[in-house]
């Protein structure tokens, strides 16, 4: 695996591979790689001739400077894991390569970026994500880019921008990878204290409670309220727990259509997110 620091060199390398007829798969990351990232790299490996993984802790998507400073960074470890999962190129630019002096452009995706994560982390979060993903997609020019379903709203924002800007790339997702006890894998999990680790399971418990309530015939707001109660019983107050339309992230109103239960909560000092697809319930006839 080659480590590349500049966009020019990346373009040369990927361009050569493309000219030799290889398909290019791309997995953008901020490092601190875990099984979730590696499942994306493996999926890209299986579907492409050349696999590019980016490693860039993007400062513009952090609304909290303490969160940015605390973000785990270990390039040697990440490079070994990416290579082991099948990456051919690790693109690991410095901040000035991505945002040179005088940089002044931002990509803003209206609508889907605004509720939930957008509202709680501030509008600048998804502006930062949309901007860096656009820059990465333009730099790598992959055939397919792979994203984790755990960051479901990020995926929806990226799909919107790819459609709106007409970027010639297919967006693929891979399912959330979980620890054996159900906790969604996240680079932030390593910051949970031993005392907080069991409480982190409240997020999945809240999502499961929403799914059970829907299966029992609850309406969307009733199902959300049940999920919130279950999380509170486990000592965790959600920032939000909502049933949404998976494309627009607007509140779900019709459970005959697929929806997504999404949750965010702080467990100790660590902010976690998770989600669960909710399948439409079979229609049952009212007794006459
Ligand atoms: O999901 C992430 O790790 C980041 O938001 C991404 C897509 C690499 C952009 O910085």
From TrEMBL:
Its main location: cytoplasm. It is found in: Cytoplasm. The keyword Cell inner membrane does not apply. The active site is at 37 (proton donor). Its EC number is 6.3.2.1. One of its GO terms (molecular function) is ligase activity. It comes from the Bacteria. It holds the Pfam family Pantoate_ligase. Beta-alanine binds at residue 61. Coiled coil: none annotated. (R)-pantoate binds at residues 61, 154. It catalyses: (R)-pantoate + beta-alanine + ATP = (R)-pantothenate + AMP + diphosphate + H(+). Catalyzes the condensation of pantoate with beta-alanine in an ATP-dependent reaction via a pantoyl-adenylate intermediate. The reaction proceeds by a bi uni uni bi ping pong mechanism. Homodimer. This is Pantothenate synthetase. The lineage of its organism: Bacteria, Bacillati, Actinomycetota, Actinomycetes, Propionibacteriales. The gene is panC.
